[in-house]
Structures are given as structure tokens and as C-alpha cells.
Design a protein that fits this description.
The protein has 358 residues and is α/β, with parallel strands linked by helices. It folds into two domains: 212 residues, 3-Layer(aba) Sandwich (Rossmann fold); 130 residues. It contains 16 helices and eleven strands. The strands form four sheets. The chain has a five-stranded parallel β-sheet. The longest helix is centred in the last third of the chain and has 19 residues.
Length: 358
Amino acid sequence: METLRQHSEQLYKEELEVLSKQEKNKIPENWNMSPRSVLTFLMGGKLKNGFEVSPKYIGDKRLMEIAVATLTTDRALLLYGIPGTGKSWVSEHIAAAVSGDSTLLVQGTAGTSEESIRYGWNYAQLLAKGPSKEALVETPVMRAMQDGKIIRFEELTRVPAEVQDTLITILSEKALPVPELNMEIAAIKGFNLIATANNRDKGVNELSGALKRRFNTVILPTPKTEQEELNIVTSRVGAMAKAMEMPLEKSSLEQIKRVITIFRELRSGITEDGKTKLKSPSGTLSSAEVISVVNQGLSLSAHFGNGVLTSEDMAAGIIGAIVKDPVQDAIVWKEYLSSVMKKRKEYRDIYLSCKELI
């Protein structure tokens, strides 16, 4: 039975195998390939044997070089940026390329406890035999330390500050004390941590200075140009279109481009030509939001339309992404409709589709 979502190492199994086989550069201990090959897996490219590696990250190559190089040192990597800039996407693919396993993961939430980072206990065993190795419940962090692999920590700033600091000893000493058994788990070479964080969500807990010093921080920006964002969106959306057996036609690409323009203008607070200042909504309107809108439109078109992506398929998703606050964001959106979209002849169809829904 096919799973709903495949991990990176499953989805790109062939690419990872080819990169490993053609490896000629030095490979760090317990890595599956060299840092240069990890970068190729992330950024894509054509190998000497003619094999084409698909790009996973479309953006500044230097940022990815810094990220990968960090993991060869004794410092952990913190991917920082507003929601939707691809932090989790990058961390998953790096872990898949380096360790061949992106499933070692701690998902940070307000309810994340120290036990989910350090270790837990099988209480039936604990009561029957007392503290023992058999009663110890390993966490993904502990397994990554023992196997020399990458551990991913998502949304680190969502975790309470006192729980975040559990990582300080692990990252400083590369060891995890287990005082109940008078022992410690020492990390073997290859172990490191990739954390993601943003400062835009409610309930964010700032990292302590002591913890920040254990990380090299790479800030992932929003796409610099409209073309770069279009490449990102079409690359991600293409997979869904292929699954639905709906090729992205020229008309679909034009629909996507218009959504990107709308989101970029509202995000920056100014129109493309620089002539009209705009109010920005409360949401981030990132590339991830565009992808979500287009995927929803594709689904509507496939199941309730004629298979061709239209403005009607996109309208509800656009409004849903922009109007998060029913009062303030609604005002921002109505002003944009009347002052910008209404005046653009090439936006007539999408303007009318959106107008019908407000």
C-alpha cells in the first residue's frame, strides 16, 4: 500500500544512490557522501555521467554551502526565517543526504518535555526491575547520538525556554548523562543537529544566549525575484500535477504567476512598478502559501472542473491565504482589489472571481 507522503530518502532514492556511487571526494565519518555531493543533491545539477539531479532548494547556493559545511564542525545548524521559506524542507533533504535517514525528528511544541529530548522510561519495567537499560526508552536524539546521524529539531522556538536548554549539554559535551544508571551516552562521529525556528508565530520563546552560541545560524530569505519564486512554486506543484495526471499548461503557469505577483506585492507593501504603496496583511504570504493555493486550485480543477486551472479555482484559496484576520486583513484585501487588481485588464477574470467571494 502506497504511503501518503514519502520521506526524502525514499522519494529521491535513485538520486542518492547515484551520488554515492560516483563519489570521488572525501567523505566525513558516518556520512553517506561528501559535502560537495550533499550540495549537489540540494541544488541539483547534471553529473559527469549525464544523470540529472533535481533541485530541492532554489535560492542562494552560498547559504546551502554554509549550512552543509556547518555540519562537518562541532557546531549545530539553526535554519532561521519567516514561516514558509523552506526550513523544514531543507533540513529533511540534508538529513537524507548525510545520514540516509530523515526520520530522526523532534517536533517542537509548547508541550514538548525534557523526556522527549533526553530519554524516558518504560514504567512497567521500571516498577518491576528498577532503573535499567531495558527500562530506558530511547528518544530520536539518543538514537542519533548512538548511530552518528543527523537529528532534526523542528520549531525550536515553540519549545519552553527551560526545555530548550536541555540541548546545551548535548551540543557542548556531545554526551547525554543518564544519572539514574550512572552512565552517559556519548555521541559518535557523524552526529549533529539541525534545528528550525522562526520569530513570527505567536508563543515564540527566544533562545538563551548559551544555546545560541552552540549554533551556526543560516537565515533563509524569501525569494529575491518573481522568477525565482515561480521556479520554486512550479517545481513543488509539478509533483502534485503529475500525480493528478494534469500537466502544467501555459495557462496554468500564467495563473500561478499572477498569484505570486499578488502575494509579493502585499508582502512587500508596494506594487511591482513602485507607484502604489499598500497595506500588508497579518500573514506571511510565503512561497509555501502560494504552493498551497495552487495545489487547492489543481484539486478543484481536477475533481469539479474541466481539468484546466482557472481563476475561479484559485480565488477561494487566495482569499483564505490573505484574510487570516477577518477584520484587519479583510480591509487590506478589499483595498488591494479596488486600487490595484480592478485597474489591471489582464487580471479581470481573477478580479471578478475574487470579488464574488467577498
